[in-house]
Amino acid sequence: MPEVMVVGAGIVGAACAYRLAEAGLKVLVLEKEATFAQGSTGRSAGGVRVQFSEPSNILLSYHSILEYRGMEEARYRPIGYLFLVPEDLREVQEEALRTQEALGVPVKRLSLEEAQALVPFRKEGLAFATHGPLDGVLDPHGVTGFYLREARRLGAEVRFGEALLTARREGGMWRVETPKGRYEAPYLLLCTGAWTGEVGRRLGVDLPVHPARRMVYATAPLGHAPTYPLTVDLATGFYFRPEGERLLLGRSNPAEPPGLREGVDWAWLGPTLEAGLARFPFLEGLALDRRASWFGYYEMTPDANPLLGPVEEGLWVAAGFSGHGVQQAAMVGRLMAEEIAYGRARSLDLSPFRPQRFQEGRFLRERGIV
């Protein structure tokens, strides 16, 4: 009989399963899809960065990137993140820089001229730029597959095509029913990404996580491999990054209501390109490849930060990363295993991310949301 049932085989669930098994616990992973990384993980743009404003987010990402850096399957490439900072965010970003510097993570302030040596752009309205040389991109599928393989090697069982239908607490156990069977364990850990709010409702628990669709538009091959960093114009939220001979482009649409909407929103391509061309004129004339473009889901919470920790007796959650799950999964797996196996997280203070913070009127003020 398992001691922990992990629901969800995305990158967060896989990391948790691996570290729980490593801690000596018997683990069962239940995944509704036919294979792993089919939700937000598989549709991620794959960026990882330390450039956040809150210490906890900085450290979650920093320690995760250090782990990915030594993982062959991650295919980690430190292409860097370049943030272009508008005048109205000068003080916010200067404070974030001070926090990053105090924590010892590698981020540099650049003049606009120094930044233009990395990427051509219009300077109007900008104050300065920041660059994180440890930031970059990786392969979320590769990381997830590695964690699941290692979890299995340590005795974990992974079952696909097993959506959680119902779950209830009875006699000190969580009893879970799926289309294929019934299982029980003392601990139930939800790593269900954008579907966490719905899963919570099946359990009769309010978990304030909702899906928000995000687009990743891809250019046609350029005929060469561009070497730009992942570049974000903080004035508009427009970003781009190289992928082989293509550029990937995106921008969040704050006006789109939450929900599991399917398909690429081609109507949002115009506003996305408008914001991009205003700052990066060199993008003009690039052809878009509709077949190479895709959509995915952010798993949003009221303060755009994750829920990490116990919800009620034996029920735990690691979800709601609001676009940062791939970046932080490695460290989250370690911390959740520490919490469940040893009673508390030893490597990092998780109190800012407790699920109860909203009922207590506490919101984490992360200013580095893109």
Brief overview:
With 370 residues, this protein is an alpha/beta fold.
Descriptive report:
- Helix 1 runs parallel beside helix 5 and helix 1 (11-22) packs parallel to helix 8 (325-342).
- The relative contact order is 0.20.
- The mean pLDDT is 97.
- A hairpin with a 2-residue loop joins strand 15 (238-243) and strand 16 (246-250).
- The longest helix is centred in the last third of the chain and has 18 residues, at 325-342.
- The protein is globular, with a radius of gyration of 20 Å.
- The termini are far apart.
- By secondary structure, it is of the alpha/beta class.
- It contains eight helices and 19 strands.
- The strands form four sheets. An eight-stranded mixed sheet has the order 5-6-4-14-15-16-13-17. Strands 8-2-1-12-19-18 form a six-stranded mixed sheet, covered by helices on one side. The chain has a three-stranded antiparallel sheet with strand order 9-10-11, with no helix packed on it.
- The protein has two domains: 4-42 and 140-209 and 302-357, FAD/NAD(P)-binding domain, CATH 3.50.50.60; 78-135 and 211-299, 2-Layer Sandwich (D-Amino Acid Oxidase, Chain A, domain 2).
- Residues 4-338 form the FAD dependent oxidoreductase domain.
